[in-house]
Automatic annotation (TrEMBL):
Keyword 4Fe-4S: no
Record keyword Ribosomal protein present: no
Domain EF-hand: from-to ranges: 25-60, 89-124
Stored PANTHER family: CALCINEURIN B SUBUNIT (PROTEIN PHOSPHATASE 2B REGULATORY SUBUNIT)-LIKE PROTEIN
Name recorded for this polypeptide: EF-hand domain-containing protein
GO molecular function terms attached to this record: calcium ion binding
Xref: SUPFAM superfamilies: EF-hand
Stretches of the chain forming a coiled coil according to its record: none
Amino acid sequence: MGANASTLLDDDITEIVASSSFSKEEIEQLYGRFQKLDRNGSGTIDASEFLMIPELAMNPLVPRVVQLFDGVNFKEFVRLLSAFGKSAPRETRIDFLFRFYDVDGDGAVSESDVCSIFRLLVGDNLDDTTVRRIVRQAMLDFGAGVEPLSETDGNESADSGNFRCRPLTREDFCRKLQQVELDRILQISI
């Protein structure tokens, strides 16, 4: 499939179906939608084009989603959307969520990452201290461990506030999500 191809080849469709959670018909529908979003015909969707999706217009998390989708070609577009398909494997959904929450891309979900996401939800309605406190409690409730803020704070108790939540690795994140029904949460209609 060329960068500016106006139609999908059967081989391309077969390859994309095999590597996604979408049927042939859904791939064809997605391609039509992709072409409408790719207004400049570049073969990729950039942030401004992605923001034209009506279902996303009012979602406060869109800026983060756009970061994941910015500058993607059709195959990447399908791969990213595959996490939302009706028959998406659990690992695909968890992988998308992990990449969504790992804002800095360091391979772990830290307090800072979750604060960035939470800030998108609440805007300027809460001060930074309140956001950090809410996020810290949420991460503790999720099962993140704690660690001192620095070597000199090593003897401080967790109750003193001189600690941070230990970042969640991909493995930790996956283990914590085993009981969550992701298929009901992460699903879109094509």
